[in-house]
Design a protein that fits this description.
By secondary structure, this protein is mostly helical. The chain has 7 helices and 5 strands; from the N terminus they run ααββαβαααββα. It folds into 2 domains: about 40 residues; about 150 residues, no CATH class. Helix 5 crosses helix 6.
Length: about 200
């Protein structure tokens, strides 16, 4: 009887070790290897570099407030330790979860519209693109629509002393199309567009 139990225990230990090796080591290493080989940038965080310095990621937005730069979507993320607003906090991703009828959301959108129009009086008669006044479900969206980028051309051009036509051309040059020509909408990565501005892309 004890010999049979001991045999079962040995078989169980062997099977456990075998599955640990297969699922914990071989599978993980194989998946990592395939990722590094076929999707190197994505596997390593889709990082954006300036020279040898990492300045951000294609997947996580950053906050810009200077009129010299294009602004991204509002971010609803908070500091997980304090609960206070901390835009684009990658360690606490999440949306506001406020319903369209919620007075808090309505007031926030109104204030955002007011701020955008005050920063760009020349656009007062133009409708504000919705993605400039609403956050996405993650709070980390690094992109804005083409319309949202074009809405800001005049402000950025005036702040930098550049012809609006050149800034518009830079926006158009940075529009990224749909994934596989089907999924999503044409969009602009805010960080990449601002980096192109700083490098003299519209000068």
């Amino acid at each position: 009887m004890f010999a049979a139990i001991r045999g079962d225990i040995i078989k169980s230990v062997r099977l456990t070790l075998l599955f640990v090796i297969i699922t914990g080591a071989i599978y993980s290493l194989g998946l990592t290897g395939v990722g590094q080989l076929l999707f190197h940038d994505q596997t390593n965080g889709s990082l954006i570099t300036k020279g040898s310095t990492v300045v951000g990621s294609h997947l996580i937005g950053q906050e810009f407030s200077s009129p010299r730069y294009f602004w991204g979507r509002p971010s609803s993320t908070t500091d997980p330790a304090t609960g206070k607003a901390q835009p684009f906090a990658a360690d606490n991703s999440g949306g506001s979860n406020l319903a369209p009828s919620n007075p808090v959301l309505i007031n926030r959108v109104r204030q955002s519209v007011k701020h955008l129009r005050a920063a760009d009086p020349a656009q007062k008669s133009q409708p504000v693109p919705v993605d400039l006044v609403t956050s996405d479900f993650s709070g980390l969206d690094p992109n804005i629509s083409e319309a949202a980028a074009l809405y800001q051309v005049q402000r950025v051009a005036v702040a930098r002393g550049l012809p609006p036509s050149r800034v518009r051309a830079l926006v158009e040059a940075n529009v990224q199309g749909r994934i596989l020509w089907v999924f999503g909408e044409p969009h602009v990565n805010v960080l990449q567009l601002n980096m192109a501005l700083d490098s003299g892309g519209a000068g």
